[in-house]
Structure formats: C-alpha cells, structure tokens
What we know:
By secondary structure, the protein is an alpha+beta fold. The chain has helices at 2-29, 85-116, 122-155, 179-200; strands at 34-37, 48-51, 55-59, 71-75, 174-177. It has a single domain, classed as Butyryl-CoA Dehydrogenase, subunit A, domain 3, CATH 1.20.140.150. A 5-stranded antiparallel β-sheet has the order 4-3-2-1-5. The model is unreliable at 1-5 and 207-212 (pLDDT under 50). This is Claudin 34.
Amino acid sequence: LFLNMRCESGFVSLWLSAVGWALTAVTLGLIQWRVWQVADLTFITSGEAWVGLWRVCFYSHTLVTSGFRVMYCQSMALSDSFTPPEVATAQVLTLLGLVVGFCGNAAAVYALRSVYFGLEKQTPIRRAFAVAGTLCLLSAVCFLIPLLWNLNSVVTNQTIAFPSNFHMPPAPVTQKPGAGIGVGIIGSFMMIVSGVIFILYRFPVKMGPRVECS
C-alpha cells in the first residue's frame, strides 16, 4: 500500500504539472486577458474589446482584418512604445516560463521512469525530482508575476495609450479580467502544487530488482 501511494503521488504530480503547463501554454494564445467595456460603438460595435499579450481585437461591422469575418485586430509588440510594462513583462516572462515548465516536466518524466524501472542509484533520482519541482515552481512564478500584475491593472482600471490605427478609446468605461488571466492563474497553481510534491517526494521501498507500480 505504501509503495502504491508513493507511485501514485508521483504520477498525480506529473499529471498536475503536465495539465498546468498546458493551461499556461493556452493562456499565451488567448486574447482575452483584459476585457474593455467601451461607450463609443462607432468602430467597436459590440461595445467590448479584448487586450491580450500580442494583439488587441474587437468585433466590428465597419472594420475587418484580412482573414477575419467580423473582427478587427492589431498586433502589440515588445518594441512598441505604447505597450504597457505589465504587458511587455508578460511577453517575456510567459515565454520563459513555458520553456522552464517544459524542462520541469521532462525532468519529472525522467525521475518517475527511473523509479519505475528500479535504478539502483537513488541520489540522481532524488536530484531529478528536486530539479523537476524547482523548475515547476520557477515556471509558475514566471507566469504569476505578469498575471497578477495585469490583474491589478484591470482592478485599478489602468488605461493604455493605443495609437490611432487601433481605434481604441483613450480609456475604457470599465474593464474586467478575461479568460486568459483566469486560465493562467489556475495553470500556475497546478504547477506550484506539482512542484511542491516533486520536491517532497520520497523514494519508495523496492520490491525485488525494480519498483512495481500497480
């Protein structure tokens, strides 16, 4: 029973880490990080605009971006002078966090594989679990910093000085956090939980030449 619990905890933490990493990867592509409610419906006919990490989009009957039917989008790059610091930071840290999280999952797979096949040397395996946990925690931090920073900007109704070709108002009437922030926070906390489990993982008792997980 003890052996099975040890094996299961390792696989559960790997599942949490993999799903958490996938959610953080999804949040990079979501444009609904900050949802602006606007009063002027001249261009933003839906009254709602989405501010993401890489672009700004809204539904419009008068402006349409090539490739879209009823949506207008403009890109927002790190080098643009109007890009706010919380968005610029997110563009860098989220990509870094994605790479670090992938490495953490790879280290976890190696560690669990070594446990399952019963390698004799336990020290390298313990180190692999420690590395996996540390990388998962670091990945979560890389995501949480920009996520919470952008969430604070939403709560305090911070504006962005978009250029005229974006057709965005000087400030929103109100704004709310979008799915991108929510998904990212959930994924980050899953990475934190898995990271802690990996770091606290204890090597199971062996049964014969290899560890048997059932």
